[in-house]
Amino acid sequence: MKVYENIEQFYQRNKLDFIPKNSLGHFNVFKRAKATTSQITYNKRDYFKITLLKGKIKINYADKTVQSDNYALMFSDPLVPYSWEPIDENQGGYFCIFTESFFSKFGQIRDYPVFQTNQNKVFILDDFALNEVEKIYLKMLEEIKSDYIYKEDVLKNLVFELIHYAMKIQPASIVNLEKEEKKSKIYLLFNELLQRQFPIESIYQRLELKSAADFAKQLNIHTNHLNKVLKENTNKTTSELIAQRVLQEAKILLKHTTYNISDISFCLGFEEPSYFINFFKKRENTTPLKYRKSVII
């Protein structure tokens, strides 16, 4: 099962010393390599990231593609997969990474448009804007090394400076994609949104996106269009794909946990345990309890 890359795995992948998150979440800031042709590929990540990209680069996120010839500011979050392809070797910039819990009691970071699924996430910078944004990152680098007792509040304010600076300037123009390429990205994003809800690791965890309409709203497209794209790619409807993944998770929970049927029903988004039992029985010709007894030795 494909799992999100978490903060610790990010440090391992980049061969960095891991800084354990504190009770207020995690934050760190880095300089990008000055010369690189390495690509960032679509991948699952459970943290937020704001990146100043210097150099000619093609950026893909959701079903959109933009190209920056000089400087761009990009906002990444767990809901939207992204990738970028350096076009030349003259790359550089900065980036900061943080968890949602870092902003606990300090504001709802997801409420800002740059971290919402259907909004612009890439902003092209001119020389003046580059200078202003670099100043913010340099303040972050200086602050994170300080011993100031309230430095985390300062860092949060600097993140908000980046957010508000970006929202005041014009977003990057979207490159027109071929029709088939756009459909492929819609399918990819749907699948990312679906898979990100799993695995269920606590009885307090619950599916947020449960219906075709839920996914269509997140993707800012009509439900019928989503159904059509998925049908063309998988020969299954949106509801069938959701049900297939929910059933898979139900079997995992029944086999590998001691959660009772009510808990599993809640986690998987059913309003009543009876709805879950009927759902399971319709597809497996047995009840969840009988299935559990048959697979546990």
TrEMBL record:
<dbReference type="GO" id="GO:0003700">
    <property type="term" value="F:DNA-binding transcription factor activity"/>
</dbReference>
<protein>
    <submittedName>
        <fullName>AraC family transcriptional regulator</fullName>
    </submittedName>
</protein>
<dbReference type="Pfam" id="PF12833">
    <property type="entry name" value="HTH_18"/>
</dbReference>
<dbReference type="GO" id="GO:0043565">
    <property type="term" value="F:sequence-specific DNA binding"/>
</dbReference>
<keyword id="KW-0805">Transcription regulation</keyword>
<feature type="domain" description="HTH araC/xylS-type">
    <location>
        <begin position="184"/>
        <end position="294"/>
    </location>
</feature>
<dbReference type="InterPro" id="IPR018060">
    <property type="entry name" value="HTH_AraC"/>
</dbReference>
<keyword id="KW-0804">Transcription</keyword>
<dbReference type="InterPro" id="IPR009057">
    <property type="entry name" value="Homeodomain-like_sf"/>
</dbReference>
<keyword id="KW-0238">DNA-binding</keyword>
